[in-house]
Amino acid sequence: MESLGKADDLEGQRVEQGIVVYGNKGSTDQHAYIQQLRDGRNDFFATFLEVLGDRQQVSIEVEPGVTSGDFLQGFLLGTRAALHGNHRESITLTLSEVNPRSVGMLIALYERAVGLYAFMIGINAYHQPGVEAGKKAAGEVIDLQTRLIEHLKSNPSEAVEVESLAAEWGADCDPETLFKICEHLAANPDRGIEKIPGATPFQARYRLNVN
Predict the structure, then answer these.
(1) Are residue 117 and residue 138 in the same domain, yes or no?
(2) DSSP string spanning 35-75?
(3) Which of 8, 80, 143, 186 is the most exposed place for a label (fewest CB within 10 A)?
(4) What are the backbone angles phi and psi of residue 64, rounded to the nearest 5°?
(5) Are 150 and 176 in the same domain?
(6) Which residue, among 133, 119, 135, has the nearest Cα to 4 in the 3D structure?
(7) Residues 117 and 36 reside in one and the same domain
(8) Known catalytic residue: 136?
(9) What is the pTM of this model?
(10) Residues 152 and 134 in one domain
(11) How far apart (Å, rounded) are the C-alpha atoms in residues 162 and 184?
C-alpha cells in the first residue's frame, strides 16, 4: 500500500492508484474480514502462505491424534475452499518451513511484484510523498507542543484556553491540534500540565501545575 498508493502517474495525470492489503496469521481471520471476502464485494484476490512444517519439536496434540498444526492446515484449506465455493480467487504459496532463507525469498518476491505492478500501471513505486507528509506533520505537532510548554512555563500563573491561544498565535496554529496536545499533556501527570474543566470540553483551560 505504501508503494502503490499514488495520486499521479508517471505522466503527471491524476490516477489515484492503490491496492488495499490485509494480513493475519492462523484462523484469526475467520472472525475478522474473511466473512466480507466470501460474501461481500468480489473485487480482490487472496494469497495464502502455507507452511508444511509445524515446529522443530513434537507438535502439541489438541485432540487425540490431531495436532495444533493439523488444525492450522484445516483452517487454511477450509478457508480457501470456502472462498473458492463462492467464486473468490486466491493463490497459495507453500513453504517447507519458516527460516531466514524462506522469509527472505518472500520479501524479495513481493518487492519485485510491487515494482512490476507499478511499471505496468505507470506509477513510481519508489516515490513516497504521503509518507513524507505524515513525518512532516508529526514534526509540526512536536514543535507546537514545545511552543505550548515553553509558553506555560514563561507564564506560570496563566491558565490558557485553546481557542484564545490559537487565535493569538495566528493561522499557523490549528486549534484542534492544540486541543489534542493539551489533552494529552494533562492526561499524563508527569508532564506537569493541569487541566481546569470548563462548561464544555473546548472551554477547558490549561496551566502549569504549581503543586
Answers:
(1) no
(2) HHHHHS----EEEEEEES---SSPPPEEETTEEHHHHHHHH
(3) 143
(4) -55, 120
(5) yes
(6) 119
(7) yes
(8) no
(9) 0.69
(10) yes
(11) 13
Cell of 91: 493463490
Long-range contacts, 145-151 (Cβ 8 Å, 24+): 145/181, 145/185, 148/178, 148/181, 148/182, 148/185, 149/185, 149/191, 149/193
Residue 13 near residue 123 (C-beta atoms within 8 A)? no
How far apart, in whole angstroms, are the C-alpha atoms of residue 207 and residue 158? 6
Number of independent structural domains in the chain: 2
User: Which H or E run includes 152?
Assistant: helix 129-154
In percent, how much of the chain has pLDDT > 90? 71
Identify whether residues 107 and 54 lie together within a single domain: yes
Q: Any catalytic annotation for residue 2?
A: yes
Where a domain ends, among 82, 102, 121?
121
Q: Is 87 among the residues known to form the active site?
A: no
| Pairwise CA distance, residues 202 & 195, whole Å | 11
Residue 60 has pLDDT above 90, yes or no: no
Q: What is the mean pLDDT of residues 177-184?
A: 96
Residue tagged active-site, from 84, 89, 135, 163: 135
Give 106-145 pLDDT, tens digit per residue: 999 999 999 999 999 999 998 888 888 888 999 999 999 9
* pLDDT given for residue 211 in this prediction: 66
Catalytic choice (11, 16, 25, 31): 31
User: For residue 110, what are the domain limits?
Assistant: 6-121
Write out pLDDT tens, residues 65-113: 999 899 999 999 999 999 999 999 999 999 999 999 999 999 999 999 9
**What integer pLDDT is reported at residue 11 of this predicted model?**
92
The last residue of one of the domains, among 90, 121, 152, is 121
